[in-house]
Specification:
The complex is a heterodimer of chains A (130) and B (621).
Chain A lengths: L2 E5 L3 H14 L2 E5 L2 H9 L5 E4 L8 H11 L5 E5 L15 E4 L5 H13 L13
Parallel strand pairs in A: 1-2, 1-3, 3-4, 4-5
Helix pairs in contact in A: 2-3
Chain B lengths: L12 H24 L3 E5 L5 E4 L1 H7 L3 H4 L4 H4 L2 H6 L2 H11 L3 E9 L5 E12 L5 E9 L1 H21 L4 H13 L10 E8 L4 E8 L4 H14 L3 H6 L11 H6 L3 E3 L8 H6 L3 E3 L10 H7 L4 E8 L2 E9 L9 H84 L4 H29 L7 E3 L1 H16 L4 E6 L7 E3 L1 H17 L5 E9 L4 E8 L6 H4 L17 H11 L3 E7 L3 E9 L2 H6 L17
Parallel strand pairs in B: 13-15
Antiparallel strand pairs in B: 1-2, 1-5, 3-4, 4-5, 6-7, 6-11, 7-8, 9-10, 10-11, 12-14, 15-16, 16-18, 17-18
Helix pairs in contact in B: 7-8, 7-14, 8-14, 14-15, 16-17, 17-19
Classes of the chains: A alpha/beta (130), B alpha+beta (621).
Chain lengths: 130, 621
């Protein structure tokens, strides 16, 4: 079962992804800040990181470079409410850039592709009824 | 002087001879004195026959004494002088009454249509047989009067010109002054101006006034001289006159163009030596260029320089081509003098024109700057709207995606009561969050009008702390209030100040995620101001952010639109108070609020004061 690390300071957002991705067949680990995320990535076992950008303290962009410094092959999907960060070249290092939406199919698709890059077959996709 | 010999009474021959000799000598003396007098003398009898005429009179008439003596003045004097001007009546009156008459500046028209001015004197003198004769003294002051008069005209012209700032109008006035007769100008027949065109290095005819033939001359100048009493009258009517460019004479001179290099030739030479040139024989004068001879056809003319402060503006030309009247030295002087006045006026008008142009340029530049500023303000406000939209979009997108996501989960898990309830709770919370965002935006865009009363600052601080501890529950932050109960009251909107303190305390608590202490203090300053400090021991604000913390939409938080401190600052400002920030990284941040309590300070801030009463309670509570 591929393991996804969800990094978001918004508790309800984390809850939502936890529910959705578990249902999808992923193992989901949560982090509420950049610092927390780095600590988790250092321990082995994460297959893909879903990273929010606007967070207090260390923001997603900084967290992204720290994560890649630890494991430069780690697939990272940026998941943010801002579309403007797309133009920030610091975000180009990420594997995908997803703008937050109530329709999670885009995010799930990017996670599946990232996992495949890691050489792991994503879990059987359940048809999205929403 | 008289024929009266009655007083000669011979006593003896010697005595008679002596007396005779004395009389003869006296007669010769008087006759030579009379002959030498420059004034014209006539002695007339009762019939106005000439008994005696002095040489001055005969010379003026151009006849010998014998031809004049014994003739009646009615045959010799022009009708206009005798009757129209009333000389005949005056002489008759003096003969009758014996009264002396003296007239000065007595004008009449000569038989050749010239105008002369005389000083006239009538003295009764005794005639033979007790009759009365009259001594008529005539002094021709035409020239003197003309000079005085011309000076006066010149003065008027100069004054009128200095008041004119419109260049074409001024040039026309100058030419009019040179050509018009009567009370309006110097009376030349034709005049034109040539001005230096620096771009082409040429002296070009600019404007001309004058008739092309005698008929036109009569027509034009009889109009001007009869219709206008002074140059001002003429200029006042200027706009109704045909433009100077349209006259015939201009059509002729408009072809005149002289290279400024032609310094030896007229009229350019005048420009360089600064002296008026009086040409009397143009056909044989080597200074006169062929164009001048061919186009102007005048034998005699005068050209005066228009030069001011070493600046060569041009030249003025005038002649008496139509009347062929010679140009006197006095005319040349007057013309030069008028040109000198004219050039000052031209210089003034040009300077004024330049200043006008510069003023216009400045005005234009100002307008452009203003436009640019407006555009920039507009684009700034557009940028601000854009920035706000992006922030609001983000703020709304996160809860919306949460709501949508959980709504999707609810659809999928409709059978799981527990999950549905949990998800509904999350959706409810997120909707509340959206509402809060909305009211925050509205509060910022339409802050409510403050309602001021006098409050004790200590009470306000304690209330604020109570409220926030109720809302947040227990935190790892220790909150302390330090203030003296007897501090002067401050004049505030209680709700708004609570809002500010709430915002500051929330920021402080957020800055101390690992705990710390938050202190609220109030103290009085010497100048009747109350200083409130909200200090934390948190992470601090980086120096680079310190200047921006009060800016709208500036935030370092993931949620929040950067409105809190901007709104707080606005509220404090509306209270006539000040808000300052000081911060040291890893040591903490202190916000300082300084409230005025002095009546004058409050008034200066536009806040109407309501006095706290004696027993410490406040009105409006």
């Amino acid at each position: 079962m591929p393991t996804v690390l969800i990094v978001d300071d918004d508790r309800n957002q984390r809850l939502l992804y936890q529910e959705e991705l578990s249902y999808e067949g992923y193992e989901v680990i949560e982090a509420a800040s950049g610092q927390e995320a780095i600590a988790i990535v250092q321990d082995d076992g994460i297959d893909v990181v879903v990273l929010d950008i606007a967070m207090p303290g260390m923001d997603g962009v900084e967290a992204l470079s720290r994560i890649l410094a630890i494991d430069n092959k780690m697939p990272v999907v940026l998941n943010t409410a801002y579309s403007s960060y797309k133009d920030d070249f610091m975000t180009w290092a990420a594997d995908a850039y997803v703008v937050k939406s109530s329709d999670l199919s885009g995010l799930k698709q990017q996670i599946a592709e990232a996992v495949r890059k890691r050489g792991i077959e994503p879990p059987g996709v359940v048809a999205d009824k929403s | 002087m008289t024929d009266d010999n009655q007083t000669l009474i011979p006593t003896d021959d010697d005595e008679t001879a002596r007396l005779l000799e004395q009389v003869t000598r006296q007669k010769a003396f008087y006759e030579s004195a009379i002959a030498a007098l420059p004034v014209r003398l006539l002695v007339l009898d009762e019939q106005l026959n000439i008994l005696l005429a002095n040489p001055a009179y005969c010379q003026q008439r151009g006849v010998p004494v014998e031809e004049v003596q014994g003739r009646n003045i009615a045959d010799l004097f022009p009708e206009s002088l005798l009757h129209d001007a009333g000389l005949h009546a005056a002489i008759t009156s003096t003969l009758e009454t014996g009264e002396r008459v003296q007239w000065s500046g007595y004008r009449y028209t000569t038989s050749d249509h010239g105008e002369r001015t005389l000083n006239v004197r009538l003295d009764p003198v005794p005639g033979p047989g007790g009759r009365r004769n009259v001594l008529l003294t005539l002094e021709d002051v035409t020239e003197r009067h003309r000079q005085l008069y011309e000076r006066l005209v010149l003065q008027q012209l100069a004054q009128a010109m200095l008041g004119m700032l419109d260049l074409p109008r001024l040039l026309h006035a100058i030419l009019t002054g040179m050509t018009a007769g009567g009370a309006v100008g110097l009376g030349f027949n034709r005049a034109f101006l040539m001005l230096v065109d620096e771009a082409s290095g040429m002296l070009k005819a600019e404007m001309a006034v004058g008739p092309t033939n005698a008929d036109e001359a009569t027509k034009i100048w009889s109009d001007v001289t009869t219709d206008y009493a002074t140059i001002e009258d003429f200029l006042a009517d200027y706009d109704s006159l045909p433009p100077a460019e349209q006259n015939q004479f201009y059509a002729i001179v408009s072809h005149l163009e002289m290279a400024l290099e032609d310094a030896a030739k007229l009229p350019v030479s005048v420009l360089y030596n600064g002296q008026t040139a009086h040409v009397v024989d143009a056909a044989n004068d080597p200074r006169v260029p062929d164009d001048f001879r061919r186009l102007l056809k005048a034998d005699e003319f005068v050209v005066a320089p228009l030069v001011v402060k070493d600046r060569k503006i041009g030249v003025a030309y005038a002649d008496n081509f139509i009347s062929q009247q010679p140009i006197s030295q006095a005319d040349v002087q007057l013309f030069t003098s008028l040109a000198n006045h004219a050039v000052l006026a031209i210089d003034r008008a040009e300077t004024y024109e330049q200043e006008q142009r510069r003023a216009q340029e400045l005005e234009e530049a100002y307008r452009q700057l203003k436009d640019a500023q407006e555009r920039s303000l507009h684009s700034q406000s557009l940028a601000a709207i854009g920035e706000m939209t992006a922030i609001v979009a983000h703020e709304i997108r996160t809860p919306l995606s949460t709501i949508g996501g959980f709504a999707g989960l609810m659809l999928r898990q409709a059978d799981d009561q527990e999950k549905v309830q949990c998800n509904a709770r999350i959706i409810y919370d997120e909707v509340l969050r959206l509402e809060k965002i909305l009211s925050g935006l509205l509060a910022f865009s339409r802050p409510s009008q403050p309602r001021f009363h006098w409050y004790k600052i200590c009470e306000i601080l304690h209330e604020s702390v109570d409220m926030i501890t109720k809302k947040l529950g227990t935190t790892s932050v220790e909150i302390a209030v330090r203030c003296h109960q007897r501090l002067p009251r401050i004049y505030i909107d209680r709700g708004q100040i609570h809002q500010v303190l709430d915002n500051l305390m929330r920021n402080a608590i957020e800055a101390m995620p690992d705990g710390g202490s938050l202190s609220l203090t109030a103290a009085a300053e010497l100048d009747k101001r109350i200083v409130v400090k909200v200090a934390d021991t948190g992470i601090g604000i980086p120096q680079a952010h310190l200047d921006k913390v009060f800016d709208t939409f500036f935030t370092t938080k993931s949620s929040g639109m950067g409105l809190g401190l901007a709104l707080s600052k606005k509220i404090i400002h509306d209270h006539g108070a000040e808000m300052l920030v000081d911060s040291q990284p890893h040591q903490g941040t202190t916000f300082t609020l300084i409230f005025p309590t002095d009546y004058n300070d409050l008034q200066a801030a536009g806040i109407a004061e309501e006095q706290a009463d004696e027993n410490g309670t406040t009105k409006g509570e």
